[in-house]
């Protein structure tokens, strides 16, 4: 049975033009696992308010990170696929949950190469209903359209030794610097998503210190998993935990999200007299709008504006050789 690999990432608009941004935002935000409200309310919110009003603003943000190769997330994922294919000597295709290439096309490309078993690797180290779960469920729907196709899905690898090692190797050139503070920034989630993903329905965000006590609920708890990644990274690198912070970025207004806020922490450190910091985003394995524009550009501008002197953004794993090896091992362990 011929085996192939499918890397699935979030996605990107076709271009930074407002029309393409609107189309992308609409597809993304209409996902019931992203905005988990009744369909009619979601439709009114997305089609009537968010997509029309935010398209031009988001267009300018995407334009600031667009490269000659196009979307950084898309081009980097393509490069990663090539390196993995070379290492494992198997067909490797990519797909985007939103936008192109679609999950359907990713499966079709493998099917056209006579693949009958797909190893699916969601490009998300941590479990969240809006990322990992959404990708998996979309894949399950699309793969049913191909007869005789079997598959295996790589589970969240937030505490995998080679993943942590890759984060360490990737950050080494930066950690040689003597930063006064290092921020570990992860994408925020609405608190209701944490409650919905709690397989016990009575533990997450209810029990005191719920993320610090080993529990079966952590199997699908985003907050517990990202905290564990931070803890393991600090242990691996020997950083002084007192000079680090664990924060969340990209929260939207209108409901309660995981905090504390990365944006507020960056400004607060500068106001407190801290001059030299670094920010790492271990939840993103591929650089994208949230890392490059939100942290490396706007985050740095904010830090300087509030009195800081230097903010270094530690890039995502992208195509680092240690990350390629970590993915190869995930495949070989199947």
Per-chain topology:
Layout: E1 3-11, H1 18-29, H2 39-63, H3 72-88, E2 92-98, H4 103-112, E3 117-122, H5 129-143, E4 150-153, H6 161-175, E5 181-187, H7 191-197, H8 222-237, E6 244-249, H9 262-271, E7 276-280, H10 289-305, E8 310-314, H11 321-332
Parallel strand pairs: 1-2, 1-3, 3-4, 5-6, 5-7, 7-8
Overall description:
The chain has two domains: 3-156, Rossmann fold (3-Layer(aba) Sandwich), CATH 3.40.50.1400; 161-314, Rossmann fold (3-Layer(aba) Sandwich). The protein has 334 residues and is an alpha/beta fold. The protein has helices at residues 18-29, 39-63, 72-88, 103-112, 129-143, 161-175, 191-197, 222-237, 262-271, 289-305, 321-332; strands at 3-11, 92-98, 117-122, 150-153, 181-187, 244-249, 276-280, 310-314. The chain starts with a strand and ends with a helix. The strands form two sheets. It has a four-stranded parallel β-sheet with strand order 2-1-3-4, sandwiched between helices. The model has no long low-confidence stretch (mean pLDDT 97).
Which characteristics define this entry?
single chain, 334 residues, alpha/beta, Rossmann fold, 2 domains, 4-stranded parallel beta sheet, 11 helices, 8 strands, 15% strand
């Amino acid at each position: 049975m011929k085996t192939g690999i499918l890397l699935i990432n979030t996605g990107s608009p076709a271009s930074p033009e407002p029309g393409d941004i609107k189309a992308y935002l609409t597809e993304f935000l209409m996902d019931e696992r992203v905005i988990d409200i009744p369909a009619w309310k979601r439709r009114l919110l997305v089609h009537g308010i968010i997509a029309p009003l935010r398209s031009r603003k988001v267009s300018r943000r995407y334009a600031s990170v667009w490269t000659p190769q196009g979307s950084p997330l898309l081009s980097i994922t393509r490069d990663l696929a090539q390196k993995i294919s070379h290492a494992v000597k198997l067909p490797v295709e990519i797909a985007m949950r939103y936008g192109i290439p679609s999950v359907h096309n990713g499966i079709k490309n493998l099917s056209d190469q006579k693949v009958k078993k797909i190893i699916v690797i969601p490009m998300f180290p941590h479990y969240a209903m809006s990322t990992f779960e959404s990708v998996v469920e979309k894949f399950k729907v699309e793969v049913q359209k191909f007869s005789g196709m079997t598959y295996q899905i790589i589970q969240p690898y937030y505490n995998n030794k080679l993943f942590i090692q890759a984060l360490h190797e990737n950050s080494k050139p930066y950690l040689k610097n003597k930063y006064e503070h290092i921020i570990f920034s992860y994408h925020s989630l609405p608190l209701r998503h944490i409650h919905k993903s709690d397989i016990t329905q009575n533990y997450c965000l209810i029990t005191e210190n719920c993320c610090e006590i080993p529990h079966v609920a952590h199997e699908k708890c985003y907050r517990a998993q990202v905290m564990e990644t931070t803890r393991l990274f600090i242990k691996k690198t020997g950083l002084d935990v007192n000079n680090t912070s664990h924060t969340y970025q990209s929260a939207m207004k209108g409901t309660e999200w995981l905090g504390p806020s990365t944006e507020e922490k960056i400004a607060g450190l500068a106001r407190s007299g801290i001059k030299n910091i670094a920010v790492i985003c271990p939840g993103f394995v591929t650089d994208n709008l949230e890392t490059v524009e939100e942290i490396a550009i706007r985050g740095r501008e904010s830090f300087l504006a509030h009195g800081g002197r230097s903010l270094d953004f530690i890039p995502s794993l992208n195509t680092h050789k240690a990350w390629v090896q970590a993915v190869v091992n995930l495949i070989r362990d199947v």
